[in-house]
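Our preliminary data section would be incomplete without showing what the modeling component actually yields. Below, a chain of 151 amino acids is followed by its predicted structure, encoded as tokens that our downstream tools consume directly.
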Amino acid sequence: MSFLAAALSRVEDPQLSEELQERADLVAHKIKFMDMVPVCLLDTTNAPVYILSEVLQFAGAFLEPIPDGAVYLIYQQENRDLTALMREVPVMLQPEWPAVANNRLILLNLDEYRWDRAEGLVELIEDLAEMIHPGHFVFGKEGSKWIRFEL
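Predicted structure:
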């Protein structure tokens, strides 16, 4: 059983459980027809972050541990909001990284998600899908929980 299925099985309200399953199924159906995208998750020291590796798969991506092989770079740091990340991340960027050269940088405030619960996990999957597959998904959290960062 996947961690998503396990989280959904713990939802006590049958109507909410069904709604969350439908939302997760919508993302799964769309990404079935897309290529998996290599994404590198980094903290503010440029160290790889592995905490979302399984979640990324549900959003149509796979974890790339080094920035050189990633289409997208997602920066996140525990206890850092988007404003703090905007101040800290620019000095971390290397111009030779493909994601930097192609302006595919995302700042994520993971603290805003309660992804230990099914509702927050589905929301995180939706938002990651929107980040990684722009134009295919629009869930409306850009600007509050995550942003595209342009140089």
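The chain has a mean pLDDT of 92. Residues 3-149 form a domain with the Rossmann fold fold (CATH 3.40.50.1980). Preliminary results of this kind motivate Aim 1 of the renewal.
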